[in-house]
Amino acid sequence: MSCCGSTSSPFLPLPLRLPRSHAQTLTLTPPRRVRPFSSSLSAAPSVSDPFVLEIAEKLEDSLSSSPIQSLPPLQTLRESSSRSLLSTPWPTRKSDPFRFTDISYLRKYPLVPTQTPAIPSSPIDSPFSNLLVIVDGVLAPSLSRLSALPDGVFVGSIGNAPAGALYDRIQSVLASGSEFEKDLFWDLNSVGALDVAVIYVPLRVRMLEPIHVQFGYSGGAGEGEEIMAMSNPRVLVVAEEGAEVALVEEHFGVDGGEEKCYWANPVMEIVVEDGAKVSHSYVQRQPIKAAHVKWTVARQKSSSTYNLVEVNTGAKLSRHNLHIQQLGPDTVTELSSFHLSSRNKQIHDLHSRLVLDHPRGYSRQLHKCIVCESEAHAIFDGNIKVNRFAQNTDAGQQAKCLLLAPQALVHVKPNLQIVADDVKCSHGAAISDLEDQQLFYFRARGVDLKTARDALIFSFGAEVVRQIPFKPIQEKVANEVKELFTSL
């Protein structure tokens, strides 16, 4: 469906559940009192949520007295979000951003913020020369490999950023933030971040090798021990005018974390200056007992390019909040994502928002998801807003979903809001099981039913996986997806 004009109404959400009888028929369809956590604020407002304040208080108590924690940028982040948390309730299904997403798993076990990272005993493998390792929210220099960086490029802790122009630049970016509606999880990260990893690429520097950012989580205790460890990694990426950099981001469990229950709450901010290019590959493959709630925010200036390829297969609960602002003309944004809910009651959620404010903006978004198990769930809420001065915009959005089991569920909400009157925009959604004629094509050539289904299902996600621009990561992700399919 295409939309073009002064105003367009967004699609209504499409809840789809496969009935138990036939997988191919689709139907559209007072807590305990806690003290206020911030010592700088004497009392919490009456609208405060005691559970939220309890989490924030635990995060504050977990902060160390290291010099990093006293740096002005971290203090600014913490103070701003502390004030916000005093009036932010815990999200419920009655609040619009979470009405399809059940986050009750985050409250199932007592929360214990991580304080000292468990450094893995064995090296972390990477096919690239530039490796940045973050374990439980803290940089691990002993596991990182950064000796091959070009001159002027800085990758490391904000505490090691050289004083002067670079440090001032980092501080101004963190302080400025973005004009968008942040949520509870952004603020919790700001309050609980133990460090900020900085990737800075100076004016007109083009990096030939990608920067591999690996996030390892050791977890707290096993699920039976009823403890949920929480970590808040934070990364800031700045690509100055004319610079080019590629990021490969991975999230996974380490040293027993594969069997433990934990909550990863990362934030990544990306600034793409005039004429700069950022290629971003994001892979989430955490264990089934983990929860993963992530914010990615990108700000693009004139003639810049941001490309994101996302593959999300892990965690019991995974939610990605993606917010992109085009802050100049002739800006290019390309987004591709593949979510696979392959285990019982697994939830994968992508909430994306792209705001175009200037002429000749270009964007493409492709979201694909597969729900393979009964009671598993996938959510896509994609919002593209074309404001008044974004004339000659070319924006496209497409969502495609496969439901392969009885009681599998997907909510799809493509949303295109147009105020400009000279644009070319389209959006749409398609949801189904495999088509009989597709299977017949294979069966007529002697291929058995299971092999035919496996081939079609894998090729559905491979359209996104193949867009990862680095063969070692692409092949690694493809093999992991195949293993998940064979275990069904």
From TrEMBL:
Residue ranges occupied by any SUF system FeS cluster assembly SufBD core domain in the UniProt entry: 229-460
Xref: Pfam families: SUFBD_core, SufBD_N
Listed InterPro entries: Fe-S_cluster_assembly_SufBD (IPR055346), SUF_FeS_clus_asmbl_SufBD_core (IPR000825), SUF_FeS_clus_asmbl_SufBD_sf (IPR037284), SUF_FeS_clus_asmbl_SufD (IPR011542), SufBD_N (IPR045595)
SUF system FeS cluster assembly SufBD N-terminal domain: residues covered: 70-213
Gene Ontology BP annotations: iron-sulfur cluster assembly
Name listed for the protein in its UniProt record: Protein ABCI7, chloroplastic
Taxonomic source organism: Ananas comosus (Pineapple)
